């Protein structure tokens, strides 16, 4: 059950980050989930200690990590961040 919740939350976080970064049309649901999960890890490492670990701050750090991940991917693929 926890795995299903983890995938759903990762998908939501990845989807919201892709809407903000305007890459939603290029990504499918699987890539949104992957971006959300990897972004959550990045956000936990980068922003977790400063924001705190749980509750709404965990969601915020996961979202910020996903946005950072998409910005890095855009920078590598296109040479610019949208």
Describe the structure.
There is one protein chain. The chain starts with a helix and ends with a helix. The protein is an all-alpha fold and 82 residues long. The chain is globular, with a radius of gyration of 12 Å. Helix 1 packs across helix 2, helix 1 crosses helix 4 (56-78) and helix 2 crosses helix 4 (56-78). Helix content is 78%, strand content 0%. It has one domain (2-78). The chain has helices spanning 2-20, 29-46, 48-51, 56-78. One of its GO terms (cellular component) is plasma membrane.
Summed up:
It is a multi-pass membrane protein. By secondary structure, this protein is mainly alpha-helical.
Key features of this structure:
78% helix, globular, 82 residues, mainly alpha
């Amino acid at each position: 059950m926890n795995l299903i919740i983890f995938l759903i939350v990762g998908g939501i976080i990845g989807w919201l980050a892709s809407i903000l970064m305007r890459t939603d049309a290029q990504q499918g649901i699987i890539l949104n989930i992957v971006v959300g999960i990897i972004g959550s890890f990045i956000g936990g490492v980068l922003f977790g200690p400063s924001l705190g670990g749980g509750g709404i701050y965990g969601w915020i750090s996961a979202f910020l990590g996903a946005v950072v991940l998409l910005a890095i991917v855009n920078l590598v693929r296109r040479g610019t961040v949208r």
